């Protein structure tokens, strides 16, 4: 949502001499969106100015039925009038009622705070969808249809088609004159759709691309999404229109939905619901809808033989039906279709327009092989440490030069294997070209790692490791038709998480041009952080790739094994990092709706937010703290990062139900609901109940802040009082202050009882890292003296020197190196921020640079290209970690990037001014000297913020370049030896235009910066 306000424009503050403009127009946080179902869409825009300190004083929005009517005199839909306001984020439409399936054009004129005109934006548009929720209104009789007599889970994907003659609009050539055409489509399952022989595409990066697995994943018995496509170009100049759809099982009919209320052991019937609306230049219209008696035909005898989210896809090219998606195909032998009685079973399901950008293939991130290894067998089993031996490599066909491997062809025979290394763990599908005899069966098996000779390996050294996929087969199977010119394919009804592709065949085949096609919902990246340290840059890249892979329709935990679920704890921990990196506000807001649906369907008393959303697989009853709290934390985070409080207002009833429910469970003990997960996968164990009590306090504090912001001050006060009681109960139970010392009794209770691979003999410990961090973050102490002691305890724990180990011989910390972290999922995102806030940025940087276990760089040192689930998922010394829970693409620990933006680079939000209307510039210099240069940017709702610093003169000077976008301002906190040394050019910054000096204390220069570009220098010593 942050970046969507910019709608794809990098709207940094203008360079000197650049004209003032209004740009980045968005409706519902998207640029020129189709299928908007909002009655009162939210508008956004940005002003751009070369002048410093320029802010918006007023705006006027015009909405009209055509671009030529966007004038004050002719605007026929809405004229807001001149509104005195600085608002430019989520400004609500307040004009005439909007009609369904209608394009509206709009613009905005902006004046600055002095009343001077800034400019009028180039016109933008938004187009409404069907503007209904019941799946009836606006659908003109469209029904859910599937192949008649098709038994669920029987071989072959349903393929449906309908051919219709277009209306003769009197052109004299018996051809219609189409003005516009829209296709609205949803599925029970997933779909691949074509119009007139061409697959549907969506705009992307100046071209087009295809989506993967639309319409995504929801709680199917609560809500479904439909998508809108502009198919005008596919219909124009045609005399007929042919609609064709392939239906896949997706998340609706597979093991991934086991345990869900809509799951059926016997399988669910797949179905499609669609409406094609064609409007002609003479003002008439024609519709084509899915209906059982409307001439639709279906078959399952095509090439799509099997598909499953976990297991992959089987495609038999011998069974292709050439031309079936286009005009003139003979479908007379196909089956009829029938109505699927989904509405009868779930009459209250809502059918809504998908509100954001869909998951799609991103060609700019395609990956080609970096090496190709051909194995002809296995040798050395008897002498190998794990008894599995190693692959026998054919050097003649093996390619190790990345430049050559990217385009090499390789021929293999039966009994041979070729392993492609894509160089990057990614998510999506493989595209490949094959040549071989008809009937040859080629299997592409996907994995994230190669086997070594360790005990955890599941095959010979050099083969693809797949044990961590558990029961997921993750295999793309292609059966050749024998085309002498070659055959090209990529799966469309599943996805894979992989770096390596292992290929075998039943006959001699040649593989050419294998490409990793990246699929993601994180399509527009709006933030960057780079440093002079290549290891830190690798970490940032790993985090970014992890987000790309796990933001796929829903924020998942992992993309490769038999899980791939919307774990809510992972989501909330990573949400701020995710929103710094990517325009993901709509994505997370939509997920929050799913979280609320899941609470009603699966949560205790229809109030508790769940550990997984959507679906019921692995949804644990009972204590859900840290995971269930995502229902509060995600709205807070989206609001803070985007400045749009809609997500808070819309979810307020569900959030209050959740907090009320906890209070009903624990009453005046003010304890949390309990936690089955605790500080998940932490090397040092903390009481799970303590983490629950902490999260109860944290969610309550967030509720107090959100209540006040949405006009509920009395509720805010009530939550403040509740927070105070939780704090006192926590201190009484967990804070021991006897004998002049302070102890956080984080050993009171067991750690997670369900953590796979945990040492059953490892006990919870007092003064654990996560406990100390959260106590400091929430202020769960009584005096500043206690606070100082707690900071010292935390520093000692992290430092973990010989004296500490000697004093704590029974601690898990004795096994690890100095300056290592020991937190799990619920401590990782607060670790570095709390340290820095408490004046120990030195420790935060030491942890950042550490590459011994446990640390962020440990995985990078051991070859990671994404973030791992476990700190010890793999090492070159010890091999693979516990296979029962060992994903090599699991983004939760990537939450450190939030600190990299907000503290290392210094682009930090101000909680009192959500959306970066006012923000903090607080770069923290690396006391270890490892990083001497940082450059970062984040595209805020007001434009691109830039913060870049470098040290000069052997660390004595700092040069700081910053951009504050127009209509926003910042408070700068810059390290400096003296106020006089802080300058812009030769002028003291305090006297520079746009700067307002505040203070110089404790080596920190503080001032207010109005919008503009600044280059600031300062003496550090």
Question: How would you portray this structure in words?
Answer:
- By secondary structure, the chain is α+β, with helices and mostly antiparallel strands.
- β48 and β49 (957-964) form a beta hairpin.
- α9 (688-709) runs antiparallel to α10 and α11 (769-778) runs antiparallel to α12.
- The longest helix is centred in the C-terminal third of the chain and has 22 residues, at 688-709.
- The protein is globular and about 90 Å long.
Task: Annotate the secondary structure layout.
Blueprint lengths: L20 E7 L14 E7 L7 E9 L13 E2 L3 E2 L6 E2 L10 E10 L4 E4 L3 E4 L17 E3 L11 E7 L12 E11 L1 E6 L2 E2 L2 E3 L2 E3 L13 E8 L1 H4 L4 E9 L22 E10 L4 E5 L7 E3 L4 E5 L3 E5 L18 E5 L2 H4 L4 E4 L6 E2 L9 E9 L10 E4 L8 H4 L3 E4 L4 E19 L5 E7 L1 E2 L13 E2 L9 E5 L7 E4 L5 E10 L3 E12 L6 E5 L2 H17 E2 L1 E2 L12 H14 L3 H18 L27 H13 L3 H21 L21 H22 L3 H22 E2 L6 E2 L24 H10 L5 H16 L2 H6 L23 H7 L3 H9 L6 H6 L12 E2 L3 E2 L15 H10 L1 E3 L8 E4 L11 E8 L2 E10 L4 E8 L4 E7 L7 E2 L2 E2 L6 E7 L2 E6 L2 E8 L2
Helix pairs in contact: 5-7, 5-17, 6-7, 7-8, 8-9, 9-10, 9-11, 11-12, 14-15
């Amino acid at each position: 949502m942050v970046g969507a306000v910019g709608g794809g424009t990098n709207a940094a503050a203008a360079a000197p001499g650049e004209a003032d403009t209004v740009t980045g127009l968005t409706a519902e946080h998207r640029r020129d969106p189709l299928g908007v179902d909002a009655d009162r869409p939210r508008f956004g825009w940005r002003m751009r100015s070369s002048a410093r300190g320029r802010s918006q004083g007023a705006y006027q929005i015009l909405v009209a039925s055509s671009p030529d009517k966007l004038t004050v005199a002719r605007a026929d839909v809405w004229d807001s009038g001149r509104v005195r306001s600085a608002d430019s984020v989520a400004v609500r439409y307040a004009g005439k009622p909007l009609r369904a399936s209608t394009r509206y054009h709009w613009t905005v004129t902006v004046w600055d705070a002095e009343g001077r005109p800034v400019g009028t934006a180039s016109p933008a548009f938004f187009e409404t969808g069907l503007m209904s929720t019941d799946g009836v209104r606006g659908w003109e009789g469209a029904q859910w249809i599937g192949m008649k007599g098709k038994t669920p889970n029987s071989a072959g994907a349903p393929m449906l088609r309908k051919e219709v003659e277009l209306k003769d609009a009197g052109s004299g050539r018996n051809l219609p004159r189409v003005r516009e055409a829209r296709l609205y489509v949803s599925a029970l399952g997933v779909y691949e759709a074509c119009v007139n022989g061409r697959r549907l595409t969506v705009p992307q990066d100046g071209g087009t691309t295809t989506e993967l697995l639309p319409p995504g994943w929801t709680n199917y018995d609560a809500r479904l999404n439909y998508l809108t496509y502009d198919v005008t170009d596919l219909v124009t100049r045609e005399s007929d229109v042919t609609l064709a759809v392939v239906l896949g099982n997706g998340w609706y009919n597979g093991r991934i939905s086991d345990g869900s209320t809509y799951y059926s052991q016997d399988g669910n019937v797949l179905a499609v619901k669609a409406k094609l609306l064609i409007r002609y230049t003479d003002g008439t219209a024609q519709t084509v809808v899915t209906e059982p008696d409307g001439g639709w035909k279906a078959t399952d005898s095509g090439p799509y033989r099997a598909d499953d989210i976990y297991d992959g896809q089987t495609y038999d090219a011998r069974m292709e039906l050439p031309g079936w998606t286009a005009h003139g195909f003979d479908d007379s032998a196909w089956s009829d279709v029938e109505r699927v009685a989904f509405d009868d079973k779930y009459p209250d399901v809502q059918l809504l327009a998908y509100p954001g950008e869909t998951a799609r293939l991103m060609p700019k991130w395609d990956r080609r092989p970096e090496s190709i290894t051909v194995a002809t067998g296995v040798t050395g089993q008897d002498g190998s440490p794990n008894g599995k031996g190693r692959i026998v490599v054919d050097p003649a066909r093996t390619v190790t030069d990345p430049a050559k491997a990217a385009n090499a062809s390789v021929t293999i025979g039966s009994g041979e294997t070729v392993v492609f290394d894509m160089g990057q763990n990614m998510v999506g599908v493989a595209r490949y070209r094959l040549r071989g005899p008809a009937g040859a069966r080629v299997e592409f098996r996907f994995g994230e790692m190669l086997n070594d000779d360790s005990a955890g390996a599941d095959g010979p050294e050099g083969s693809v490791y797949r044990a961590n996929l558990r029961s997921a087969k993750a295999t793309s199977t292609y059966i050749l038709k024998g085309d002498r010119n070659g055959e090209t394919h990529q799966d469309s009804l599943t996805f894979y998480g992989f770096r390596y592709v292992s290929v075998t065949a039943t006959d001699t085949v040649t593989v050419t041009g294998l490409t990793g096609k990246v699929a993601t919902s994180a399509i527009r990246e709006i933030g960057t952080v780079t440093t002079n340290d290549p290891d830190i840059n690798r970490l940032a890249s790993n985090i970014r790739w992890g987000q790309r892979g796990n933001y796929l329709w829903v924020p998942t935990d992992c993309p490769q094994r038999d899980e791939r679920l919307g774990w809510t704890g992972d989501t909330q921990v990573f949400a701020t990092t995710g929103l710094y990196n990517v325009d993901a506000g709509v994505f997370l807001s939509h997920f929050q709706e799913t979280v609320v649906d899941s609470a009603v369907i699966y949560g205790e008393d229809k109030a508790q937010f769940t550990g997984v959303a959507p679906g019921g697989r692995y949804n644990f009853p009972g204590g859900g703290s840290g995971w269930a709290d995502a229902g509060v934390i995600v709205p807070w985070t989206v609001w803070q990062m985007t400045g749009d409080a809609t997500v808070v207002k819309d979810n307020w009833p569900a959030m209050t139900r959740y907090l009320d429910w906890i209070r009903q469970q624990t009453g005046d003990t003010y304890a949390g609901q309990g936690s089955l997960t605790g500080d998940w996968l932490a090397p040092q164990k903390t009481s799970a109940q303590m983490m629950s009590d902490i999260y109860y306090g944290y969610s309550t504090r967030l509720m107090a802040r959100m209540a006040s912001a949405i006009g509920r001050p009395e509720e805010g006060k009530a939550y403040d009082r509740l927070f105070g009681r939780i704090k006192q109960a926590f201190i009484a139970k967990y804070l021991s202050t006897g004998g002049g010392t302070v102890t956080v009794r984080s050993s009171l209770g067991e750690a997670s009882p369900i953590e796979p691979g945990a040492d059953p003999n490892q006990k919870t410990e007092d003064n654990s890292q996560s406990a100390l961090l959260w106590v400091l973050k929430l202020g769960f102490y009584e005096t500043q003296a206690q606070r100082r002691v707690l900071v010292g305890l935390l520093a000692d724990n992290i430092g973990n020197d010989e004296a500490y180990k000697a004093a704590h011989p029974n601690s898990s910390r004795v096994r690890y190196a100095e300056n290592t972290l020991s937190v799990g999922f619920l401590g990782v995102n607060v670790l570095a921020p709390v340290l820095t806030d408490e004046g120990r940025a030195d420790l935060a940087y030491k942890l950042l640079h550490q590459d011994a276990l446990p640390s962020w760089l440990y995985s990078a040192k051991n070859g990671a290209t994404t973030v791992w689930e476990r700190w010890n998922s793999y090492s070159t010394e010890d091999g693979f970690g516990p296979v029962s829970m060992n994903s090599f693409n699991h983004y939760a620990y990537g939450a450190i990037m939030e600190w990299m933006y907000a503290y290392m680079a210094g682009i930090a939000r101000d909680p009192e001014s959500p959306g970066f209307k006012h923000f903090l510039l607080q770069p923290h210099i690396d006391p270890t000297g490892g990083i001497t240069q940082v450059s970062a940017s984040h595209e805020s709702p007001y434009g691109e913020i830039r913060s870049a610093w470098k040290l000069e003169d052997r660390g004595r000077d700092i040069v700081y370049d910053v951009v504050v976008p127009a209509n926003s301002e910042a408070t700068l906190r810059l390290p400096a030896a003296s106020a006089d040394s802080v300058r812009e050019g030769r002028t003291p910054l305090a006297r520079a235009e746009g700067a307002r000096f505040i203070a110089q204390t404790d080596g920190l220069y503080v001032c207010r910066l109005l919008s503009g570009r600044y280059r600031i220098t300062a003496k550090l010593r």
